[in-house]
Protein: DUF1656 domain-containing protein
Organism: Crenobacter oryzisoli
Amino acid sequence: MIGEIDIYGVFIPSLLVLMLIAFALTGCLRFVLARLGLYKVIWHRSLFNFALYVIVLGGTVALTHHWLQS
């Protein structure tokens, strides 16, 4: 994984960028899950949303790492 991303002289950690991407993807997934009515059967919505974010972040980091290694 790249250490930092340079945007006009400002160094931004790559993990921050990946976290923002994962946040956007999680927001889309939450919208789809709400439209499907899946939240009716989930016991603790906040814990589920946090776990979903962690899973999406892990997948984003893994895909980025795999893509950079190729």
